[in-house]
Design a protein that fits this description.
The complex is a heterodimer. Chain A has a domain of 181 residues: Orthogonal Bundle (MetI-like fold), CATH 1.10.3720.10. In chain A, 68% of the residues lie in helices and 0% in strands. By secondary structure, chain A is mainly alpha-helical. In chain A, helix 3 packs antiparallel against helix 10, helix 10 runs antiparallel to helix 13 and helix 12 runs antiparallel to helix 13. Chain A contains 13 helices and no strands. The two termini of chain A are 18 Å apart. Chain A is flat. In chain B, strand 4 and strand 5 form a beta hairpin. By secondary structure, chain B is α/β, with parallel strands linked by helices. Chain B is built from 19 helices and 13 strands. Chain B starts with a helix and ends in a 6-residue tail after the last helix. The radius of gyration of chain B is 24 Å and the shape is globular. In chain B, the strands form 4 sheets. Chain B has a 5-stranded mixed beta sheet with strand order 2-1-3-12-6, sandwiched between helices. In chain B, strands 8-9-7-10 form a 4-stranded mixed beta sheet. A two-stranded antiparallel sheet of chain B has the order 4-5. Chain B is 44% helix and 13% strand. In chain B, helix 11 packs across helix 19 and helix 18 runs antiparallel to helix 19. Classes of the chains: A mainly alpha, B alpha/beta.
Amino acid sequence: MKQEKVYPQYFTFVALGLYILLFIIPSVIGMYYSFTNWNRYSSEIKFIGLENYRTIFSSGGNYISYIYNTLKFTVISNVVKIIPALFLAILLSENLRGENIHRAILFFPAILSYLVIGLIFRSILHPQMGLINNVLRVLGLDFMAKSWLVDPKWVWPSIYTVDAWRGVGYVMTIFIAGLHSIPKYYYEAADIDGAGFFPKLIYITIPMLKPAITINLVFGITYGLRVFDIIFVLTNGGPGRMTEVINTAVFKEFALGTYGIGTALSTILFMFMGLISIILVRLMSRREIGL
Amino acid sequence: MKRYLGIFLVVILLLGLTGGNVYPQAKKDITITEMVSQGWTTNVDLELAKKFTEETGIKVDIQIVPAAQHHDLLKAKLNAGEAPDIFWIQTNPFAIRTELDPERNCVDFTNEKWVKVMNPLRIPSVSYNNKVYGLMLWHNSPEFTFFYNKTLFKKLGLRAPTTYRTFINACEKILKSGVTPIYEFTSQGWHQVLAFAQIGGRYEELHPGLYEKLNNNQIKFVEVPAMLQALKQMKEIADRGYYGKDFLANDGTKAVELLATGKVAMTLANPGLVKEIKKAHPECTYEWGLFLIPIVDNQTYPFNPNGPARFAYKMGKNIDAVKRYFEFLTRKENLQYRLDNHPEWTNLDVTTKIQQHWLPMEKELMARIPKSKYKLVLQSGVKYFNEQWMEVGKDIEAMYIGALTPEQVLKNIDERRAKMAKAIGDPAWK
């Protein structure tokens, strides 16, 4: 059946025009620049074909590792945020005493600036003078004191932890909103059937939370692929280049004045984001059809 | 009557515009923004800025940026056309073109009187195409040699090393005595490069004409055995534990405390560090000395007429105010104030006659090294190296954790040099 149309299509033209002007055209221009030698030192811009991409995919593996790090961060940072956030949301929707205070405390890091977080955690995680290692030493747990942000083994887990500390409250808030939209009678029916916590979680909560999960995944994946601030303030890509990601590399290319390579890296990031967005949108549409 | 009133108002306006100083009278609400890397500024700059505000009403907002982020942030701001009124860079005659593009970004100060205050040897580093763009007020002390605890060395029967082998032996003995031999810090991104770059004279000594060949692209860094050896030796020093356990987390802030309390024996620093130690730890009785970086058996003196300098943004709105500020900073009384109140400096390299405070240990080192051994450091003699200082720092850090080999560090330097040279259109790289 044909749906009734309330507004004519040309109502979208202004918004579409602005979107094209402000987003599509700059993106296309950016992509074009990735095929040029655009740089700070010369006003002449020459078309050089795939040279910048050749540099990215062939120069000693550095750029490949930045792409790999970005993808790895995207996957792991989402896992370590979404799962705890789901359980926290369930916990804080159970009419706990002072649940609003708990929610506020958990959400608080999300409003802090990255610079502040960076300064705080660089101090807390310092191997000699940091709070964590000093507490561990006082408790006689010296073997657990690590060089959190400079030891190649611990630097990524430290970043994921700080990132989760910052982001879990935000993800949790979206889950709480989702949980409130689940009708209570599902749980009452399950209770009558004698279902425990996990059957209710698997057969009621998670399926009914799919929209919230999708939103968190979309936000989380786009955040993960565009990650810059948390890495920049905590490690600046170090130790060495262990934690460099695409956007820290783009920043450095722009700082070096080699804009062409910078835009090529941005284009690669755009391609990844585009691809993942298409997959997610398709999954979402399939779900909607299913419903 | 109306006509006379009009003329009167015009006269008042003209008087207002032309009266007073050679520079237009500053409005009270002018604020100059100044961006500087953490290690290049001290409280003296804040105090002088305050004095300037008292005198002129112009405020100076000094934005201090962590050293690891300063270079990239400044470049990004310049490239975006949003630079502060005053910004600093580590200069050299090559870097001024590649780092700043001065004709596009910087105010031309050639005709300012204060240009003559700078040592003529420093002027090429802040000039481009015979125009002066920067103000460099810097010291002339022996730059980044080993600053060491003489008392501890004597106690352990050690003398200041002059070869790599004697240096390693000294470090081993110090380590066994329970003291960390060297305070190294890499988290700010720049300090770890010094051991490699300050001995540029030694590379030139072992490979005569090297700087020229590097600048003409007739040789690459990776093809210079002495450079490879230097990095291998630096790695060996780190692997043997002479930098201590967590040196990758060090940011330089503990140098004074650790030296003064005898927990570390030496660090690469300027001699003025002794002033900081005396101020922060008056109880400390250690005697201090200097020796040249003995990597690759270097015994050349790191001659460097370059240093951090201030530049003014051409598109800035407060150029006249900046000119007044620079004139203020270069007055004799303010130069003397800067030196007298600087926590580290013992001298100021200016032509104005001011009272210098050279330390005996720096005089002793400078007297001991023959003038023929004064050699230009790598960052001042070779193109496209200084510009990538922080990137080299990252690579050296990566080498310390085993993620890169010394050869890869040199290859990366070559790659970045080629990238910059090609972007500039350097004929030697075509």
